[in-house]
Amino acid sequence: MNTWQTRRDGLVKWPGYGRGPAYGERVNNAYDVAVVGAGIVGLGHAAAAHARGLRTVVVERSPRARGATVRGSGHVGTTLQVDAHRALAARTRELFLSYAPRARFWLARRGTLAVATADDELEVLRGAGTGRILSGREVTDLAPVAGAIGGALYRDDMQLNPREMAPAFAAWLAAEGVDFRWRTTALGADPGSLATSRGDIRADNIVFCVGVDLESLWPDLAARHGVRRRATDMMLATGVGLEFPVITGSTMLRHEVFRETPAHADLLSRFERERPDIIDLGVGQTYAEVSGLGVLIGAAHRDEDDAWPFQEEVAFDVLSREARRLFGQKRLDVRQRWRAVAAAVPGDTLRARAGDGIHVSAAGGDSAMSMGLALGETVLADLYGP
Ligand SMILES: Cc1cc2nc3c(=O)[nH]c(=O)nc-3n(C[C@H](O)[C@H](O)[C@H](O)COP(=O)(O)OP(=O)(O)OC[C@H]3O[C@@H](n4cnc5c(N)ncnc54)[C@H](O)[C@@H]3O)c2cc1C
After folding, report:
1. 181 with 318, same domain?
2. What is the ipTM of this complex?
3. Is the CB of 40 under 6 A from ligand 1?
4. Residues paired with 206 in a beta bridge
């Protein structure tokens, strides 16, 4: 029986959870699949392996997932991708729907609201040809936003609390029989053997799902695939009463479904002319409110090879100002700020072979969590057949 409890800060507590094996403790050391990393990509691979009845272990250096996955907005966008990515996102949606009730994490199925405050934004939404186009009045009936001239509603999109989902998912997988080695760092792999800071683990297939650490663990492979570091700044403020994750004009600059529209060039040149700060700081305004937590406000993005840990206040000034403007508020009650350094992966997903039985998987991009579960399923199908 699941006995985890959600704490007020959105984290999940599980008895014995986050504990690495004690010195001398006997642990099973032979598996079909070893997964390195307990972010959404690693959990997706572990869940897919376990669903096939494979003996599976997850090796995670932290006491619980604390990489890009828990630092995100929790917006499961299944309509912001195109082509193969959209298929991955659609399958990830099905998988989240199937896992959420079993792992008991919150998953809202209300959709995403795109708010247009300028004609070119509305044109981009129309050009994307997905979602229901809304009038300004319909938008303000759905969300407490100011200045909307129209918008779009993407009904299939979903929302979760990333701080709750990843620990709850891991706890459920552990209860189902997947072994987790927390506080254990993977050092490298040879065919059939994963070297870790707590000894070797034997596994037929080893999959590295280490996000940005790909760059230091598999430097040649990362360089070959053009993987970079992306520093993203976000903040949490007291809720404003949003029932839907909200995206805006600056988000439309970033997502592939909007980038492919004819009006995108007009949108980009207006931002370059009128809002160079948004372009320079890589701001894509998104808002996702989680009951009991607040509104997750994103995000300023910078691709840097040396992602410096110190956050520029100017990025938070822009995020605060834009949020106040959108919600027509004089003050924004900011409660947390943080930085995530994640992998920026050209093409947003990466599947590569690093040796016999050694594989690397990554999802990197603004909606990469929305593809992570299906990526795991795809890799396992490559290894063990459909
Ligand atoms: C701020 C932000 C907001 C985002 N918002 C969204 C969103 O709303 N919707 C969406 O779809 N996507 C979003 N994304 C993208 C998405 O969250 C990430 O791309 C995705 O979570 C990456 O998952 P991951 O498992 O690859 O990486 P991570 O979550 O970083 O997991 C990698 C794990 O590997 C572990 N690890 C690394 N090296 C080792 C080692 N040697 N040994 C053991 N363990 C190791 C790390 O500790 C970490 O836990 C966002 C990204 C960011 C940065």
Report:
1. no
2. 0.98
3. yes
4. 34, 358
